[in-house]
Amino acid sequence: MSLIKAGSLSQLPPGEMLELLHGERRIAICNVGGQLYAIDGVCPHRDGPLAQGALHGTAVVCPWHAWEFDCTTGQHDYNPSIKLEIFKVEVSGDDILVDVA
Ligand code: FES
User: Fold this and answer.
1) From residue 55, how far is each of 30, 64, 69, 94 by CA, in Å?
2) DSSP conformation class of 24
3) Which of 18, 25, 40, 80 is spaced 20 to 30 A from 6 at the CA atom?
4) Are 27 and 35 in contact (CB under 8 A)?
5) Is 64 a pocket residue for ligand 1 (Cβ < 6 Å)?
6) What's the CATH class of domain 3-99?
7) Could you tell me the residue ranges of all domains in the chain?
8) Backbone angles phi, psi at 21, to 5 degrees
9) Is the CB of 56 under 6 A from ligand 1?
10) Which pTM does this prediction carry?
11) What is the mean pLDDT of residues 58-62?
12) Distance in angstroms (rounded) separating the CA atoms of residues 14 and 32
């Protein structure tokens, strides 16, 4: 386990996303009704920045061509062969911690 601070819970209200940059890796962190989820932040279509897209419920919508992924599972909305990596998220006080190991 390798926990990295991604940001502050007070700055990530429900329905919003933030992006964690860690080395070469981008991770999109989603607040779905107060529950946090983290998925690979790079869209597999053309590398769009998912954290800069929209969050509709649990659906992350890529800002470039609107591919959608479920942030709780990483699953693409209609192509079962496309699934993004997901990451464990913890909250400690106001800190959002993501396990990037
Ligand atoms: S880059 Fe994400 S849908 Fe095209």
Assistant:
1) 8, 14, 10, 22
2) T
3) 80
4) no
5) yes
6) mainly beta
7) 3-99
8) -105, 120
9) no
10) 0.95
11) 98
12) 6
